[in-house]
Here is the input.
Amino acid sequence: MKKGKQKEIINYQGLVAIDPDNLDEEIFAQPGLYMKFSERYSKKEKKKEELKNQIEIIRAELDLKIRTAPEKFGLKSLKSITEAVIKNTIERQQIIQEINLKIIKLNYSLNLIKAAITALDHKIKMLEKTVDLYNGQYFSPMKSPHPIKGGKRIYYAAINQQMNKELNRKR
Here is the structure.
């Protein structure tokens, strides 16, 4: 992590929870939330593509080095080297393994962000349905003996903590 820059802890359950007492705020916040996570997804995807490009360049450079000086990589001579041996030698290099690990971590982050975007899609549908219920006076004291209490209705702190712990863990 870069100096001075802290990772934002995301409350995923709170993100998609609906406060029925503040539907207007929920609806108006929705496009901004969607855009925020779409931008995050795009930035992570860009980083992943940059790493994939970087790893291809490194593989090409290593391929050339192995072919010109096989002994530096513990190989006897170019005559006895097959394409599979060259490929395996490249994949064993620490720099390749490190970049592959970064790509795996980025994929994990991308999957979480994609899940958040999908959840936001579901949230807007639920907001629409909740507004329909209000318009149909579903929550009217005359119709409902159990009014919905205010505040976020869905919140799982333990799950949220675990997700953020996994995301922010140094590997």
